[in-house]
Amino acid sequence: MASIKPSLEFKRDLVEFGANTFNQCFQCATCSTVCPLSPEKDPFPRKEMLWLQWGLKDRLIRDPDIWLCHYCGQCSQHCPRGANPGETMMALRRCAITRYDWTGISRRLYRSVWWEVGAVVAVGLLVVALFALSGAFTPARMVTTRVAMGTFIPVHWVHISDWVLASLLTFFLLTNSLHMARLMLDGSKPPWSVYVRQLKVLLAQALVQAKWRNCEKPNRWRKHFILVTGYVTMFVLVMFFLPWLQVNGPRFTLLSWLGYYAAFAILYYSGDAMISRWRKREEMHRFSHASDWMFLILLFLTALTGILVNAFRLLDLALPAYLTYVIHLAIAVPMLVVEVPFMKWAHLAYRPLAIYLKAVKEQTRELEGAGRLRALPMATGISAGIGAPAVYSPRSARWWIRFGGLAGGGPSGGAPSRRFQDESHANQR
Amino acid sequence: MKNIHVWICRGCDIGQSLDLAALEKVAKAAGHRDLSVACHSHDCLCGEAGAGQLAQAVRDGAKALVVAGCSPRFNADQFTFDGCFTERVNLRELVVWSHPAHNEDTQMLAEDYLRMGIARAGKAMIPEPFRTEIDKTILVVGGGPTGMTAAAEAAKAGYQVVLVEKEPQLGGWLKRFSRLFPKQAPYRELEPADLEGYIRRIQADKRITVCCGTTLEKVTGAPGQFDVTLSGPGVSRRIRVGAIVQATGWKPYDATRLGHLGYGQSPNVITNVQMEELAASGKILRPSDGQPARRIAFIQCAGSRDKNHLPYCSAVCCRVSLKQALWVRELDPQAQAYIFYKDIRTPGQYEDFYRRVQEDPGIALTKGEVVSVEAAAGGNLIVHVNNTLLGPHLQVEAELVVLATGMTPVAADGEAIRRLRDAQAVIAKGEAGAQWDAAQVAVRELAAHEGTAILNLGYRQGPDLPALKYSFPDSHFICFPYESRRTGIYAAGCMRAPQCTAASRRDATGAALKAIQTVELASRGMAVHPRWEDQSYPDFFMQRCTQCKRCTEECPFGALDEDPKGTPLPNPTRCRRCGICLGACPERIISFKDYSIDIVSTMIKSVPIPDQFEEKPRLLGLVCENDAYPALDTAGLQRIPHSAFIRFIPVRCLGSVNVVWIADALARGFDGVLLVGCQSGENYQCHFIRGSELMKTRGQNIREKLKQLALEQERVRVEELAISEFHRLPQIVNEFVEQIQEIGLNPFKE
């Protein structure tokens, strides 16, 4: 057995990602008990809090559990020490994104607002420059008598650029995801059959965020899901149907209605999140890192400018339509470049992947355990004894709160607080 | 001829529930040749008009008042008059509130209580205080933070103080500790010890005489009159003091016994006391190679809360390690501190300090059992920890390991030393036999106590305070802190219980106040806690003493010395007036003016016993007035009924019950005797330490007495009860009555 290696640097690092209260944790396990998603075995976020207190970098960047948390904030609300486990998990995810990224770009973007802003501005200027280079800003191309988008910028140029950009971003996101997978598998080699069998978990998570539905705040899952449908719709439209979208004049087809749906979904829910963050209305919006703001602002502006382009087009205002289109792309492209492979939006890949890998690892362990059971029937009791010194079960604890509370008894002799009773009804629902 | 005025209060349901005319008749009938009894009743004796009538009666020459109304525990001031003895008859709680109204048995009960009250008032005398010349100087033993504070506080209150310290300078452990954990809000930053300033203030105080390098050679006498022989550098002088505060402090647990934690195996395993010195030097350099230590592991409860070492928690080690961790981080921002604990104990507001320490990123804590510390390459150490929150087994490499060792008191067990000396005396006489063999065993077992005496008291029961557990002095530490079993000597600081400097200083203030109370009350001839302001004291009729030494042995407070023949030598200012000597004396020669064998016997005999055919048993309840009697009152207040066949007499302590009372009661025709005292044993609750325990040992005598009378053993029952268990007391009484009815009535009825 090797000695653990506490890292002071890692702890200091985490402060920059927004975790500065984790040291207050005194391991009461309230967080894991109230968490509706925490599993029976090795529950989070309690262990992450302690690992972080000890600066155990190696364990934390290999930990899939940080992605199991959807930050409903119950842990932070109930924490008796104000250690904010929810925000700590969020900071760990930010930190993890930088550690998965092999290019080092992510780390710079996260740790410095100036880098982040600079990157967005630079990419935005690059987009403008590309327009200029293509000669779009010449009078010949800018027809003012009517809206002529195809003349201003031929649609296949944009379409080809979309594919180039998508390939580039996919490359970075995939390589980062592979890096993450290697960290999480940590040398274990699950058989292919397990990978295949657990694909359903990956799909369920990627498409409908299945795990999140267990959360006690279904409203948040609904909002996020509508937002996701917005993204996906927009992605499909832009990647495959751009020629039918970028048209001149008032033409309302099914495609354009889908486009409006996506744009308004994004606009509404990103605006809602910004207001919540501004007012610190909900627990998960009480602390905002610069990266959180940047993502929301870019998302909101992208949707807003997209709608404006459409509006000018319908109103037959040619110059405003062209200029807004440039601005729209000068926001959308940097957003995609910065956020998807390197920053917050990367969670679209990391979260389903982490949940998938955890399921894969668990099933592999189960298979291995069964194999060992056949091979060494005598040894299992001992190995179980060593492996699990104190089986701690948050679900049974919650069960106890729920039903022990109704029975009016309990280990402390008194009835649990009313707050717990109220929540227990919410649980049953 | 003694003139008694009986006043019956009609208030609080008494008038509505009892036949007062019959009661008055009983009162008048209680008079005899030497006793004239007048009887009156009043609507509300505790009101202004009632009080006026009583005062008028006293002015008219009443030598004793019998006030029949509420419990003696209420309105005591109202019914106390100079020059007149007041006996209270508890008709309210014990009769009308716990029994049905207009009932034959209730009426008989009230009448019996009245007879007993008149009997006592007829016999009792007004105590005259024991007055003697009292010196009010306070002696403080130990010049650490506790002793200095006790001295300063006593001086501030206007008393002369002699402060004795065996080291050449004042300061105690604080001399070696330069920075302390914060003792006040916001509990965030370490604070300096500020010892110099404190010592200067002590030395500048004209009321305080500081004697450094001095020990106590001999202490004789009693509170107010202690004669102390000081042995200083080259001089030996005698002083007289009134009370003593012992603040002799602590010493760290012997770390050489902690080999499994690496102490003695590697120079880089040190104790928290050594760490203080290391940190005070300004650099944490390893003892082995003088290199700066950057990874420092603190092991909490090193030899504490461990049945093989110190079974108790020393209360400060957690805060000390948190402080040292913070200190280490201040000295070197690159350093890391790992703390392994069983439980972090930062009581009260010190939780804020714990939070402060947690804020530091360089300090990591986890719960776990440290199994071993082993040497690794380069002088480093590997700490093995089990059952941690980080995993079932953990190992951490550290450059320095600090063991948080606990505190042991610098105190001597006076009773053990006395047993040792007695055994040595037996051996010195050289007479072979069972006694000599037992003495040999005792000398072997008690050898560790040789030469440990600190106070060197010239008391028959040993030269120091008796110890209770883990060599801390015996007193009821929760209810009565600072108290010891030697009147006028108070324990404070870490020799009383492990504690931090702030708590020690509070202790010191409390103990100084206790010492002041002693000298003040002694100067007025009054008792100290718990019979505070009692002016009675035991009187010995020496002509009949048989030198059996029972009183001198059994006195829990060492109040009685002995002359060489074994005759008791009373020291009234040491006495707490519990009456245990009265209970012990087989010759019945010890009495108080208002509490004696004769008084209680007369009370018992004043109760008329119904003959066998009436089928009304009579039981006697002798109940401790500290816990059991208040419990009875509370039961009455709660209107919990109990059998009307029992008559209660409050006693000063169960230990003050003389067997003759029980014999008298049974011989007279009482069917059973119930004795209710406080809990005995290791977690005793007795206000006088040993009273209920002594009653248990005297049970043998009682059983013999019962055998002589050819009575069943079950007729005498001893119960232990806490003041809060008032609901149990009526149950006990009713069960006992049922049991007696099953056995049958006492054949000795007239």
Give a written overview of the molecule.
The complex is a heterodimer of chains A (429) and B (750). With 429 residues, chain A is mainly α. Chain A has helices at 8-16, 30-34, 46-53, 57-61, 74-78, 85-100, 105-111, 113-133, 149-152, 155-185, 192-197, 199-208, 218-240, 242-245, 254-279, 290-314, 318-342, 347-375, 380-387, 394-407, 418-428. Chain A folds into three domains: 1-100, Fumarate Reductase Iron-sulfur Protein, Chain B, domain 2 (Orthogonal Bundle), CATH 1.10.1060; 105-167 and 226-340; 399-429, no CATH class. Chain A is elongated, with a radius of gyration of 25 Å. Residues 373-429 of chain A have low confidence and may be disordered. With 750 residues, chain B is of the alpha/beta class. Chain B folds into five domains: 1-126, Rossmann fold (3-Layer(aba) Sandwich); 138-249 and 452-523, FAD/NAD(P)-binding domain (3-Layer(bba) Sandwich), CATH 3.50.50; 252-407, FAD/NAD(P)-binding domain (3-Layer(bba) Sandwich), CATH 3.50.50; 414-449, no CATH class; 595-750, 3-Layer(aba) Sandwich (Rossmann fold), CATH 3.40.50. In chain B, β33 (672-677), α19 and β34 (716-720) form a beta-alpha-beta unit. In chain B, α6 (145-156) packs across α13. The mean pLDDT of chain B is 93. The chains are: A mainly alpha (429), B alpha/beta (750). Chain A binds chain B through residues 1-4, 6, 8, 11-12, 15, 23-27, 47, 50-51, 53-56, 81, 386-390, and chain B through 295, 334, 336, 338, 344, 354-355, 358-367, 382, 387, 389-390, 392-397.
